[in-house]
Amino acid sequence: MTYIPLSGLSLRDIEYVVAVDDLRNFSRAAERCGVSQGGLSEQVRKLEALLGVVLFERSRRHVAPTPDGARLIGMGREVLAAARAMIEAARVRTGPLEGLLRIGVIATLGPYYVPNLLPLLRRNYPQLQLRLTDSLTDIMLRMLRHDELDIVLAALPVSGEGFHSVPLFSEPFLAAFPAEHALAGRKNLTMPDLKGPDLLLLEDGHCLRDQALALCGMSSNHEPERLAASLEMLWHMIGAGEGYSLIPRLALRNRGEWEGLITVQPIPAASRTIGLVWRASDPRGAAFADFATCLRNNTPEGCTALPHFPAKTCMTLEPDMPHRD
Questions:
Q1: Which of 42, 44, 136, 303 suits 269 as a labelling partner, its CA being 20 to 30 A distant?
Q2: Using only C-alpha atoms, what is the Rg of the chain?
């Protein structure tokens, strides 16, 4: 067996290869890694020469890992995860969260929760460098599993092994109707009242879609004629008179311009649980639990904080600091 000195193998080169595999594009991979495309390409070629393996099939329009490349890139991901775990294990000894924190937020929560969250984090965790991402739950959990995110704010429960989650708060759902809809003026609405052809849904992949179907007692295979790609488009479709839907409480903030077009009605016992999720193997678990307590102690108005652990480091926002509408 040919001896290959480890001095010729760097974590940076592995990061380059993983970036190319993630993005399937050398130019975007170079941008993500903060280097020139020529520099990244040269390092990838040097790594291929060191390993004696072609990692990528390349053409003008196509970049994809070879079979050997896919196997080795998977091992490279494990190496990077182990290296990051070593760094984070050392950081745990220094105290609470600090440095880069990569936060994922589901798309139906992020735009409505994050703006009020940031002042809280700046006050309680000034040493953090935040990197925010929003997407669908499954994508976020895959990124979390592959150590591309540190924590995820999502609707619980989440599926998959190797995660630890804690509840933060319960967020009510409200029914939003076109102002002229027959159900808009009905009092004491219940979930069965919404089981009808006018129910609008988000596209497949949004957990909010599954929650709406489950609460209404409808099959997960139900497919309305029109689907919304985002919560904002769903709201616009309601305002246009196309149908009605369930809307999370936080997404109803600052909707005054829709008065006269949309009527909102409360629905008893209809809600979702928002929680914090991280890898069970992450050595920062205790710090993340404390971070969750900080978020829970500042539950947004209209939502209900859920049972929690005693706070260790979190300060609540002062009355003169904007947090709630």
A1: 136
A2: 23
148-169 pLDDT, tens digit each: 899 999 999 998 889 999 999 9
Q: Are 169 and 303 in contact (CB under 8 A)?
A: yes
CA atoms within 13 A on the CB side of 149: 26
Task: Tell me the whole-structure pTM to 2 decimals.
Answer: 0.69
Handedness of CA 137, 142, 144, 145 (dihedral sign): positive
Token match 């404390």: residue?
290
| Confidence grade of residue 312 (pLDDT, cut at 50, 70, 90) | very low
Ordered DSSP codes for 56-113: EEE-SS-EEE-HHHHHHHHHHHHHHHHHHHHHHHHHHTT-S--EEEEEEEETTTHHHH
Mean pLDDT check: name the lowest of 12-16, 28-32, 127-131, 217-221: 217-221
- Please check whether residue 242 is in contact with residue 201, taking contact to mean a CB–CB distance below 8 angstroms: no
Torsion of CA 152, 138, 149, 155, to 10 degrees: 0
Q: Where are the beta strands (DSSP E) in the chain?
A: 56-58, 63-65, 99-106, 128-135, 151-156, 163-178, 201-202, 227-228, 245-248, 262-279, 304-305
Residue-wise over 138-152: b if at least 16 C-beta within 10 A, else e? ebbbebbebbbbbbb
Question: How far from chain centre, in Å, is Cα 205?
Answer: 13
pLDDT at 111 (0 to 100): 93
